[in-house]
Design a protein that fits this description.
Blueprint lengths: L6 E4 L15 H15 L4 E6 L7 E4 L6 E4 L9 E11 L2 E12 L2 E8 L7 H4 L11 H21 L5 E5 L5 H12 L4 H9 L2 E4 L10 E2 L1 H7 L7 H8 L3 E2 H7 L3 E4 L2 H10 L9 E3 L6 H4 L2 H8 L5 H26 L8 E6 L15 H8 L4 E6 L7 H16 L4 E4 L4 H10 L2 E4 L11 H7 L3 E5 L4 H4 L6 E4 L8 H26 L1 H15 L5 H13 L3
Parallel strand pairs: 1-2, 1-8, 2-7, 8-9, 9-12, 12-13, 14-15, 14-17, 15-16, 17-18, 18-19
Antiparallel strand pairs: 3-4, 5-6, 6-7, 10-11
Bound molecules: pyridoxal-5'-phosphate (PLP).
């Protein structure tokens, strides 16, 4: 390719390395994997993020109440390079200094992190980059001003001149305000600045959950100073009132995308009433293969020929991964799981639509499987620190670990390391969100490429990949319900049928077929859901001006 467009990629979180707590969940995993792939391929793309002092909370389980609680720890990363650059953003009428660090480790050299915890800032300003997703109101706006406005100013100071600004989620929208401000300062009208800024911006939306799309009263944006001189009417024209960050980003971008084909339809339906918004296309998420996939499994699958020898090699390699997981679980929980028992992995943020408890709907079904040791389940996941419903979901799972000791375990403080262990060492990867709430879901891709078979609702990426009974299983047939209770009852019956009639018998009675499915799982997913495909798709369909 000739010269590729230069891209500045904005995201609140990046998951680069498990112990570097600049991430909360799936959005950060995607962004981290994206930066690594861009770096591997030398693409002219740089990332703008925030150096979180405490990151997202550590979440542990209180042994008395079985409830999750959150702990915040100050982090120090001595591998970050000081760029010597500081920019200023006016927040609440006060100048806040923003320091720019460069992340050069763990396979990336293209990520810049903004930090307000520096000398010269008052105590309040120093806390802006304190906790990832720690607040929803003013503090969130302040964080987003640092990311967006500070981010554009950092790019100017670095001398990087992007052709395209990519907002990964609406958090970065104020970068668009700064681009408009620059243009208006040079004499363009509001309308001209809006039109010209749109030409430079692309936007990715991630959540079909309406509450997940942040909004703020217009007055708040004004007294925080996020408006950068724009008046109420102008702000309303961009993001409505209250001001919705997703709506604003849809109107301030030349093109947008959702993160799977199904999510594209959902997002277009969800935002159909927004006038003047960009078109939403579908670009399905993917994973950075070297980060998540056991290269030996990958090699064995590539050379797989369904001979007895090939089967044995693939199976033995899987057993090594399973035993590693079993050791890991024992170290963390004291529970020793069994290598010859079907092991279900399930790790998810504890959000109601993900239904972590679905498999426990009917004790008469699950008990005869768990008690004699036909099935074992490893859970992990965090609830948002301020989400009591999510915390209740986790404490319900803890109750299951007490009811079925030795068969159900919970790994606290879900992070990349746990994610990596579980998506390598489980036998199956269970995914049962209420369709169509799971926009993509990348953990299932990690599992699939490690030969861990997906057993999943047809949501997110899975309708694009699933070949039922060949590379995994679907249940629920893609049916959608308006009534949540009906949906849950229907999907539970479908899950039960799939486990009883297909998954369990195949595992215990047709091991050859199981191993063939593992190879098919790896071979049908490694290219379409590898990050190189996704990176190239963003270049050809979003960045290259066409
Ligand atoms: C892969 C991963 C995710 C994203 O997976 P989902 O399928 O979206 O749940 C979130 N957190 C961690 C730690 C991961 O490794």
């Amino acid at each position: 390719m000739g010269s590729l467009p230069k891209v500045a990629y904005f995201c609140m979180e990046y998951a680069i390395e498990s112990s570097v707590k600049l991430y909360a969940g799936g959005l950060g995993i995607l962004a981290g994997d994206y930066m690594k792939e861009a770096c591997d391929n030398n693409y002219p793309l740089i990332g703008i993020g925030i150096k979180w002092k405490q990151g997202y909370g550590e979440q542990l389980i209180d042994k008395g109440s079985d409830m999750p609680f959150d702990a915040y720890i100050n982090r120090h990363y001595d591998f970050l390079k000081d760029t010597g650059i500081t920019v200023t953003v006016k927040i609440r009428q006060r100048d806040v200094r923003v320091k720019v660090w460069k992340y050069e480790a763990h396979g990336v050299n293209n990520l810049y992190l903004l930090d307000t915890d520096i000398d010269g800032n008052d105590g309040e300003a120093r806390w802006i980059t304190g906790q990832l997703y720690g607040w929803f109101g003013e503090e969130r706006v302040a964080q987003e001003m640092v990311l967006g406005i500070g981010g554009v100013r950092a790019l100017r100071a670095l001398g990087f001149e992007p052709d395209v600004y990519h907002f990964n989620e609406g958090h970065a929208l104020f970068a668009g305000f700064e681009l408009m401000r620059e243009k208006m300062e040079k004499g363009q009208s509001f309308k001209e600045a809006w039109e010209n800024t749109r030409k430079e911006v692309v936007f990715t939306t991630h959540t079909p959950v309406i509450q997940g799309n942040e909004s703020h009263p217009i007055e708040r944006l004004i007294y925080m100073g996020a408006n950068l001189g724009m008046n109420k009417g102008q702000l309303k024209a961009l993001g409505g009132s209250p001001f919705n960050m997703t709506v604003g980003a849809l109107r301030l971008s030349r093109k947008s995308n959702a993160v799977s084909d199904l999510h594209k339809d959902t997002a277009n339906r969800m935002w159909r009433k927004v006038k003047g918004r960009s078109e939403i296309i579908g670009i399905t998420n993917a994973i950075h293969i070297p980060t998540w996939v056991d290269s030996r499994m990958l090699e064995l699958a590539k050379n797989y020929d369904d001979s007895a020898a090939a089967r044995e090699k693939l199976w033995n390699r899987h057993l090594e991964n399973k035993n590693e997981l079993i050791d890991f679980v024992e170290k963390r929980t004291g529970v020793r799981l069994k290598p010859d028992v079907l092991l279900i992995g399930f790790s998810r943020r504890a959000a109601p639509y993900k239904r972590s408890n679905l498999i426990f709907t009917d004790r008469d079904f699950i008990e005869p499987l768990l008690k004699p040791g036909k099935l074992q389940i490893v859970f992990s996941g965090k609830a948002h620190p301020l989400d009591d419903t999510g915390k209740k979901i986790i404490s319900d799972i803890i109750e299951m670990t007490r009811l079925y000791p030795g068969s159900v375990v919970f790994l606290e403080n879900y992070d990349m390391e746990i994610g990596r262990m579980l998506t390598r060492g489980s036998d199956i990867w269970l995914n049962n969100p209420r369709r169509p709430m799971e926009a993509s879901g990348t953990s299932g891709m990690k599992a699939a490429m490690n030969g861990v078979l997906n057993v999943s609702i047809l949501d997110g990426w899975w309708p694009e990949a699933c070949r039922h009974g060949v590379n995994g299983w679907q249940f629920g047939n893609g049916k959608q319900f308006r009534d949540e209770n009906k949906c849950d009852a229907h999907d539970f019956r479908a899950l039960k049928k799939c486990l009883t009639n297909e998954v369990i018998p195949t595992y215990y009675r047709n091991r050859d077929k199981w191993i063939d499915m593992m190879a098919a799982s790896i071979n049908t997913t490694r290219v379409p859901f590898g990050m190189k495909r996704m990176l190239d798709e963003y270049y050809t369909r979003m960045y290259i001006d066409n």
